[in-house]
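Operator note (shift B, R.M.): manual run for Aldose 1-epimerase requested after the automated queue skipped it. Running by hand, logging everything below so the morning shift can see what happened. Input copied straight from the record, untouched. If output looks odd, do not overwrite the archive copy; leave it for review.
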Amino acid sequence: MSTKRPIAFLVPLLIAFAMAECKDSTITVQDWGSANGQAVQKFTLKNEAGQEVDIITYGATITGIRTPDNHGKIEDVVLGFDDIAGYLSSDNPYFGATVGRVANRIAKGRFTVDGVEYQVSQNIGENSLHGGTKGWSFKVWNATIENDSVVMTLLSEDGDEGYPGAVIASAAFRLLKDGELHIEMRSFTTKPTPINLTNHAYFNLAGHGTNAPELYNHSITLNADRWTVTDSNSIPTGEIRPVKDSIMDLRRPTVLGDVINKVPGGGYDYNFCLPEECSKTNENRFVAEVVHPTSGRYMEVYSNQPGVQLYTANFLPNMSDSTGILGKSGKKYFRHGALCLETQNYPDAINHANFPDSVLRPGQLWHYGAAWQTNH
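Run finished. Output pasted below as returned.
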């Protein structure tokens, strides 16, 4: 999914407690601790409807999305931590992070580009996940306020985690007055390299601390007619199978509690393929709708990517035998406490010729577009 157009170099500008009045939202920024010996900043975008989005420069991470229900009660609907220490801890399962250089999995951490084999870091058994041991979600990004957007930028050096080519990446976040959060990412490289970014926000529209009892009440509709079959380590076999007449068919509204425990592996953690005719354009198109009937909150997702990883937090601790992950406001997070809709290329695409091409080459611009609209 690359387009040949220029990208601007962005000069970082960070001013503690600065404020910018924008057409669609107000943006404030404050100090938020440090990571890797660098200062971390938190940006808050707020629109006239009282909706707010928090993003920190560590991992270009969304730490909060606050939105009202149908009675005007505001809740934070994404999982996360109250401070930078939580995001730096081993308990953090990529809450809200921008993950890359390659999101999802690469089999055995190996791939070949133009006849040259590369070995990248293996951080989930013998495989690589979300960019490796110190992928982009573990780095402090530079940031600036550009008109009505927060734009974060990162330089990933040649050889970073074993990947070829120096890559400049940017991620722009914009909150509109109708509650739509736009995320636009761009990358370009000095050498051919695989690129596959996504955001890893964990959503529970009933509120971030309500866990499985409320997630099971969510209804989901997914615009996907196929899915990529995986082995026991969640590595694609190369087979792309129709969803029809299977537990993977979510093309009509489906209550998660009716199906989640029937899915192989104890919940959804699979890549779903958007219809092929949708992949022929670089424009955002409908991916999914999630509804929480009790609160009236709903979320629509749009993206220009060919796939979406639906993940239902299967690897969070079990409620019956664990103290959980201590998150925001003292809330504890447990298995099936949220869902992720990670719009992206197919997992391990670099090793499957029948998957969409994931190699970015010098002179090309990789472009990612996504929009989440949360409302009531």
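Quick read of the result: The longest helix spans residues 84-88. The two ends are 33 Å apart (CA to CA).
Leaving this for review. - R.M.
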